[in-house]
């Protein structure tokens, strides 16, 4: 599913193969589900949930994660289950934020921190850039809300934060070593894997969402030489982003290369080339994803090994929980491909002509990129779309 909130929702169902662990006929799971439905779900006078003062900050296990600007409380909503809302603790103590307010006309967010002078306020047009980079759930809340844990990459330092369902506050995971972090995934409700900017990995024990996660492993790794050379050769033409994905038990590192300025022929150009003597207005050359590298972690040798094919699998990457889907379950998905949405937060709001637009399907077989939508789609999409992978019940 590709979802762009608040007003628009474009849906593509991402089906997962059913398993015994997701069988809703089990009595205890039905009881857990009923308990989730009893959680308070506030509506406006028209009977609809009011998201006007909220920002979608990700999705995980089929649930959308929102941040309420006024209270700084994140909450969970499942677009496939009506009248369900799971409230999480305020982020104020974790981030040191006193208040967040959005200017509807300019689209800017005003952020007031505890340690700032009274007359000083911080501004940003993209909350994901400086408040919450990524948010993931330890498991699907429908399968047991008591074991639910939420992990975030937060703040400019991009450290790890955590809370269990029912906690009154968030806690920073101070034992983290490889921050600033680029991505996090929760595997099998037991492990948290965190990826540093240098491609090093940490593994944390989640303990079924009942305690603070404990770090079990630090894996110091060399950044893959092929990807390192790519960026050093074209340092001012590309920016890279890193993702962690669990593919059938294999831990994958995905390196995404985004051309800073890409013309209509998919050529990366220098910023100085956007304005010539003959032009009165600069050329519009938005940033665009052009290439991916994929690696698998060899735990024994402690190194990243290049992956040339994903087989029947397709990866879904962006600002949401990174997932792998087997294309044999649904033939609409292209095998050996990477589906991606825009998460270039640093530049998403710099121009009124584009931003949120960088979506597509990358083929590992022929190294090509195809659009997700037909041509003619607006290059400015606010808020940017994200993937939602609903569980099968």
TrEMBL record:
Pfam families recorded: Beta-prop_KIB1-4
UniProt cross-references to InterPro entries, sorted A to Z: F-box_BR-signaling, KIB1-4_b-propeller
Residues annotated as domain KIB1-4 beta-propeller: 50-363
Coiled coil: none
Entry protein name: KIB1-4 beta-propeller domain-containing protein
């Amino acid at each position: 599913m590709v979802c762009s909130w608040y007003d628009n929702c474009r849906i593509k169902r991402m089906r997962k193969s059913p398993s015994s662990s997701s069988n809703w006929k089990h009595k205890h799971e039905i009881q857990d589900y009923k308990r989730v439905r009893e959680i308070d779900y506030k509506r406006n006078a028209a009977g609809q949930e009011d998201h006007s003062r909220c920002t979608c900050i990700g999705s995980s296990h089929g649930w959308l994660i929102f941040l309420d600007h006024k209270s700084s409380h994140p909450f969970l909503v499942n677009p496939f289950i009506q009248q369900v809302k799971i409230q999480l603790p305020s982020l104020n103590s974790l981030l040191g934020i006193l208040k967040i307010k959005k200017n509807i006309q300019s689209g800017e967010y005003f952020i007031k921190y505890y340690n700032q002078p009274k007359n000083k306020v911080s501004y940003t047009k993209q909350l994901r850039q400086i408040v919450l980079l990524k948010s993931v759930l330890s498991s699907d809340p429908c399968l047991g809300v008591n074991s639910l844990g939420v992990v975030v990459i937060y703040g400019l330092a991009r450290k790890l934060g955590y809370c269990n369902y029912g906690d009154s506050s968030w806690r920073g995971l101070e034992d983290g070593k490889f921050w600033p972090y680029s991505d996090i995934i929760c595997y099998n409700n037991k492990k948290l894997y965190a990826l540093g900017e240098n491609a090093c990995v940490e593994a944390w024990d989640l303990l079924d969402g009942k305690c603070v996660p404990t770090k079990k492993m630090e894996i110091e790794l060399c950044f893959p030489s092929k990807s390192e050379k790519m960026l050093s050769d074209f340092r001012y033409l590309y920016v890279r982003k890193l993702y962690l994905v669990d593919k059938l038990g294999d831990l994958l590192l995905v390196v995404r290369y985004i051309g800073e300025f890409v013309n209509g022929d998919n050529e990366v150009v220098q910023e100085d080339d956007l304005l010539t003597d003959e032009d009165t207005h600069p050329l519009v050359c938005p940033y665009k994803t052009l290439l991916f590298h994929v690696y698998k972690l060899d735990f024994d040798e402690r190194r990243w090994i290049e992956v040339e094919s994903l087989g029947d699998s397709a990866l879904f990457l962006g600002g949401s929980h990174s997932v792998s889907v087997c294309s044999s379950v649904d033939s609409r998905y292209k095998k050996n491909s990477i589906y991606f949405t825009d998460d270039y937060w640093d530049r998403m709001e710099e121009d009124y002509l584009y931003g949120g637009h960088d979506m597509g399907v990358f083929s590992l077989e022929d190294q090509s990129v195809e659009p997700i939508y037909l041509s003619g789609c607006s290059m400015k999409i606010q808020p940017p779309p994200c993937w939602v992978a609903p569980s099968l019940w």
